Amino acid sequence: MWPGIISGYMDLLGFTERDLIVSLHEGNTPLYQASNLEKALGLKTRIYLKFEGLNPTGSFKDRGMTVAVSRAIREGTKGIICASTGNTAASAAAYAAKAGIPAFIVIPNDQIALGKLAQALAYGGEVLAVDGSFDYALELVRSLVVEDDRLALVNSVNPDRLLGQRTGAFEIVDVLGEAPDVLSIPVGNAGNISAYWDGFKQYKAAGIIEKLPALWGFQAEGAAPLVTGKAVMDPRTRATAIRIGRPASGEKALQATRESNGFVAAVSEEEIMTAWNELARLEGIFVEPASAASWAGVRKTLTSSRDIDSVVCILTGNGLKDQQYVLEQGLHQNVVTPEELEESIDSYLRRW
Ligand code: AN7
Question: pLDDT digits over 232-249, tens only?
Answer without folding.
Answer: 999 999 999 999 999 999
